[in-house]
Each structure stands twice: as structure tokens, then as C-alpha cells.
Amino acid sequence: MLRQKKIILGVCGSIAAYKAALLVRQLVKAEAEVQVILTTSASAFITPLTLATLSKKPVLTEFVRDEKSGVWSNHVDLGLWADAIVVAPASANTVAKFANGFCDNLLSATYLSARCPVFVAPAMDLDMYQHPAVKTNFAKLQAYGNHIIEAGYGELASGLTGQGRMAEPEEIVAVLQNHFAGKVTHV
Questions:
Q1: I want to staple 2 with a disulfide (CB 3.0 to 4.6 A). Which of 32, 37, 118, 152 is the partner?
Q2: Where is the Flavoprotein domain (predicted)?
């Protein structure tokens, strides 16, 4: 179901960013074409080299890729190119940017330019995940037609236990496969 689908994977700053490598690997194995956009804070958790190696494409992080030549990452072209955008892990910061139309990085600009379905897989500590502001932002994203892939319950990086773990890569791939197969699922 994902063969030749063009997927933008947005990776945000979260300890769960290591799961992005597994997700890229599974998407590529399913024969999807994956373009990774890494937020600045995400690079503290996972390197562009890892994701570029797995996706077989340079990882995009900034609007301008080469100041000397003027090569830039065109967020409009990216938004039109994609069959789907998956943001995994999605931080509370990025969720808030998307929900409120803020556009200060390549990922948020691409999101605002996209005409394709968007899937958001949040990862954050349980108190952040349950905060009324974050819940309001999730509701806004859903009202805009985005799909929220609920965070799982379990032990979190903080040592606490609760909801906030990013969905497993297999679950995210299954959601995408169901979407492209036309199966209605509740995410």
C-alpha cells in the first residue's frame, strides 16, 4: 500500500526521535519514498547522517541548503510533492506551531503548504500530554483534518509511567497503509 508513496517524515526534538530511524527503515522497506525534515532541536537526539543513510536522501533542516549556490528547500514544492506528511515524534512545541499557524522552520512551513493528509504522532511526558493547552491544540489539528496517532501508555524517559510514548513505528506504518487502502481507522 505504500509502494511509490511520497512520505515526508518530520522529526521533532524528543527522546523518541530514535524511533524515527526505525520508522524510516520500515517505510523504505514498504517501498515508500521518504524525505526527512529534521527540526533544529531534533538533531540533539538523532543525527541527519543516520536518517539520510536509511532514507537514501539528504535530510532537510533549513530553508537554505547552500548559501553559496542559493539552493534552498522549497517548502511549497515539498508540500505539493508529498502524498502524506508524518510527524513522529511530534513535540508539544511543533503541535502548537501547527495548531496556531506559526511558521518559523522548514517543517512548519511545509505543513502549512501541504495539500496531503497529515499524521501527527506525539511524544511527550504525561503531564505535557494531558495539559489543557496541548489537548486544545490536538483538537484544533483534528478540526483542520489532521490525524492524531495517539501516544501509548508506559514508562517514559522521565521515569514516570503514563500516556505519552510515541506510537511504535509498526503502528504508524499500519495507520498509513490503512489510509492508502481506504480503510477507515480511528487513530
A1: 32
A2: 5-178
